[in-house]
UniProtKB/TrEMBL annotation:
Name by which UniProt lists this protein: Permease
Residue ranges crossing the lipid bilayer per the database entry: 36-52, 72-99, 105-130, 137-158, 196-215, 222-240, 260-281, 290-311
GO cellular component term, pick one: plasma membrane
Keyword terms, alphabetized: Cell membrane, Membrane, Transmembrane, Transmembrane helix
Source organism, top-level taxon: Archaea
Membrane topology listed for this record: Multi-pass membrane protein
InterPro entries, A to Z: DUF318 (IPR005524), UPF0718_permease (IPR053166)
Pfam families: ArsP_1 (PF03773)
Assigned protein family: Belongs to the UPF0718 family.
Organism, scientific name: Methanohalarchaeum thermophilum
Length: 312
């Protein structure tokens, strides 16, 4: 609460110093306040999770998942995805490590889907901007899409289209000191923050423009109706950012009257389906698997969006 007040005072001071009023003042205030808040949350959460991840090796994940029944294994892969890095492209190296260590194909895919779509920092931010009901629905929806997608692609035999590869282990040695682990966590946190901070700034900036300048009826006119959810998914694919960058945009879209399910589908597609991700996946997947992966995840996201529109 104190930090929120500090962030608000900073944003108010800058808006006042710039002499802004009206819509411009509202947009800039939104931009500065949300950027500060999201960055602070990222700093705390990435450091904490980064430290915990120094204890996890791909081989340990393999051994744990291989001994579990199907449901528990896929759910475990989803949970591992939640505590991983923050965008689809940064998740791929970990996915490679899991595959190289022998983690079951479908569970590795579940991780690949869930990781960019849901993470611990996003959960905290979503709770703050959308409330616990929508945050819970988003988490359940994202886990469901990841689990069902990985399971179906395995049952349909698409593992034959995965290319063989090996990838190194970035976890700390067992006898590493706490200082060593903290240093690695700090280095990882710094790299992640450096890579995603521009997306946060741009994402919040887009949200600020929507919040301050775009009329409500313009949004509700073009992204409502029967095909609204599929259209939102298609629009989200070329928008490459991470989940933290798109949350402020979705907050503004919902505030302007865009249906909740349509907004969430847009957010999921931005996070889980991106052109740069598909380019990277070409190194480890054949085109048949990439096409099937994109199709199943898209259908899952559309289903979640339509369901949320019906429920909310």
């Amino acid at each position: 609460m104190v930090l929120k007040m500090v962030f608000k005072e900073i944003s108010d001071f800058i808006v006042s110093a710039l002499g802004l009023t009206g819509k411009a003042a509202a947009a800039v205030d939104f931009w500065i306040y949300d950027t500060l808040k999201i960055t602070f949350i990222l700093l705390l959460v990435i450091l904490g999770i980064g430290y915990l991840r120094t204890y996890i090796r791909p081989e340990d994940v393999r051994d744990y998942l291989q001994d579990k029944n199907v449901f528990v294994g896929y759910l475990g892969a989803s949970i591992l995805g939640i505590v991983s890095p923050f965008c689809s492209c940064s998740t791929i190296p970990i996915f490679l490590g899991f595959m190289g260590a022998g983690v079951p194909f479908g569970m590795a895919l579940t991780f690949l889907v869930t990781s960019p779509m849901i993470n611990e920092a996003a959960i905290f931010v979503l709770f703050g901007v959308l409330g616990w009901k929508l945050t819970t629905a988003y988490i359940v929806g994202g886990i469901t899409v990841g689990m069902v997608g990985g399971f179906l692609l395995t049952k349909l035999g698409f593992q034959k289209y995965a290319k063989s590869f090996k990838f190194g282990d970035n976890s700390c040695k067992i006898n590493s000191t706490t200082k060593d682990r903290l240093k690695q966590a700090y280095a990882e946190a710094k790299d992640i923050l450096k890579s995603i901070f521009p997306y946060v700034v741009v994402g919040v900036g887009i949200g600020a423009i929507i919040h301050g300048f775009i009329p409500r009826n313009l949004i509700t006119k073009y992204l409502t109706g029967t095909l609204a959810v599929p259209a939102a998914v298609v629009v989200g694919v070329p928008v490459y950012t991470n989940i933290m960058g798109v949350i402020p945009v979705v907050k503004s879209l919902i505030g302007k009257g865009l249906p909740i399910g349509t907004s969430i589908a847009f957010m999921m597609s931005v996070a889980a389906l991106s052109i740069p991700e598909f380019v990277l996946l070409k190194k480890v997947m054949k085109k048949e698997l990439i096409a099937a992966y994109a199709t199943i995840i898209s259908v899952g996201i559309i289903t979640i969006g339509i369901t949320l529109n019906f429920l909310f």
